[in-house]
Amino acid sequence: MPHTVTLIPGDGIGPEITEAVVRVIEATGADIQWDRRDAGVSAIERHNTPIPPETLESIRATRVALKGPLTTPVGVGFRSINVALRKEFDLYANVRPAKTLVPGGRYQDVDIVLIRENTEGLYSGVEHYVGIGGDPRAAAESVMLVTRFGVDRILRYAFEYAVQHGRKKVTLAHKANILKYTQGLFLDVGREMAKEYAGRVEFEDRIIDAAAMMLVMDPAKFDVIVCENMFGDILSDLIAGLVGGLGLAPGANIGKDASIFEAVHGSAPDIAGKGVANPLALLTAGVMMLEHLGMRDEGARIRKAFTATVLEKDSLTPDLGGTGTTSSIADAVIRRL
Known about the structure:
The chain is of the alpha/beta class. It has helices spanning 14-27, 41-47, 53-62, 81-88, 148-164, 182-194, 208-217, 229-242, 280-292, 296-311, 326-336; strands at 3-8, 32-36, 64-67, 93-99, 111-117, 127-132, 135-142, 169-174, 202-207, 224-227, 250-254, 259-263.
C-alpha cells in the first residue's frame, strides 16, 4: 500500500524545484502517492487564503508533507505560513543537518545537526504595542515564552536523536547568563537530563554568542546542537553557510501527529521561471522524508546519487558554479540511480 504524502509546491521557484524532486523520488520506485495542495501567495490567488482548509485537512490525513518555499511579506501582510503550520500541527522539533558536500571550501569536515525548539520562545507570537505618552505605538514588546514541557520534549528529542543516529555529543546553546529565567530553565533541564544519557552521549553547554564564534573557528567541535527557537533559527543558517549555503540546506519539522519536510531557503522570485534554481535542498529534505517513512534504501540511493553528481560537477546550477538547470541536475541524479 503506497504512502500518501501531501505535496505543497509553494511560491516562486517552488513549483520548479518540487517537480525536479518528485521526478527523482519517483525514479527510485518509492511507493508514494502525492496529494498536491496549495499554500502561500499562489493559494491566495486561487483560494483567497494563504493556507486553505483543504491543505490542512490533507496534512491531518497523510501526517507527512513535502513543502517547497513559501513567500512571507516582510513587516506587512499575513504572518509566516511556516510558523502557522508548526503551530497548527505542534511541530515542536526543527531538524537542520549540515554536512560538507562541495569540495574546496573553507571547511572539509562539517557534520552537524541542529535541533531547534519550534513552537515557543520569541517566536511564540506573544507580542503587542505599548502606548506611551498618548502614542499607542511608541514601543513594542515581545515575550519569550518557555515552558518546562516544551523544554523537556525538545531536549529529549535531541538526546534520543543522538543515540539513534550514533552521534557522540549534544551541545546546548543558551543565554542563561543574561536571560536567567527562560534560558536558565532550558539549561537546568538539559543538565539534569544529560545525567540519564551519561556514558552514551557526551553533553556540554555553551553560551550562544561563544558557540557562534566557535562554529566559524572550528566547526568540527560540534555534533548535535540544541537550542531555543530564535537562537536555532540564526545558528541553523550559520551552519548552512559552513557547507555552501541554503541551497544545500534541508529541514524537517517533526511533531507527534504530523511531520513537514522542506527546503529552508526562500522562494527567490527573482529567478522564478528561469530554470536555474538549485533543487538539492528540497531533494535532501525528500531524503529525510523517505527515511522518516521507513524507505531508507530509496533515501540512501538518492543521497549517494546526488553526492556523486555534486562531486563530479555534473550539470550543476549556477549557484554551485555550473551552467546547468533545475531539470538537468535532476536528470544527472536520476542517471546515477
